[in-house]
Amino acid sequence: MKNWLVLVLVFILPFIGFAQTKTKVACVGNSITEGAGIEAGKNYPEQLQTLLGEGYEVKNYGIGGRTLLKKGDYPYWKEAKYQEVLQWQPDVVVIKLGTNDSKPQNWQHKADFEKDYVEFIQSFKKLPNKPKVYICKPMPAYRENFNIRPAVIKDEMLPLIEKIAKKTKVPIIDLYTPMLGKEATAPDGIHPNAEGDAVLAQEVFKAIKK
Predict the structure, then answer these.
(1) Would you give the DSSP letter of residue 182?
(2) 108-133 pLDDT, tens per residue?
(3) Residue 102 to residues 97, 112, 115, 138: CA-CA distances in angstroms?
(4) Third-level CATH fold of 24-209
(5) Are strands 132-137 and 23-29 parallel, antiparallel or unpaired?
(6) Angle at alpha carbon of residue 106, lines to 116 and 187, rounded to 5°
């Protein structure tokens, strides 16, 4: 009887462990990802966690003011959180950077944007667990504020992101188009409120579940 019980446990326990494993989702980004000015529980990664449910673990790796450009004023590359997310080895990585890169002091290095973004994507794709990487088109900047320039995002950055996605063969999550005409959800013209973040979370959710 004991031998039979041991055999059953040996067979079943690995499946129990597998069933309990959660899909790890890392949201990498700037203050919009971090949730600047939003009440607790309402930033887009937190709302994404609610949408995805218990089978997923979503972590917020957003840092305000950070750039994708290595020569930017506050590069994400230099942050401890960048190393943390690499070490966490997520199953899914959602990158939403670029808004702060549109600032004049950063966009003067725009010639490096494609190269730096490709390298950033590859740093995740090279992880041992080979995560699924998504890159986001930034939401619109509704007016110039904090030196963030709407025209640069729309006319220069969005086409570059499409080119980068094709080059690296990663899917794009379009957060620009769904937020057009939703100025009321971003009181300062840049950072969405909880309502705006609900739209972002829904778009990311649809992409992941697709």
Answers:
(1) -
(2) 999 999 999 999 999 999 999 999 99
(3) 10, 13, 16, 11
(4) Rossmann fold (3.40.50)
(5) unpaired
(6) 110
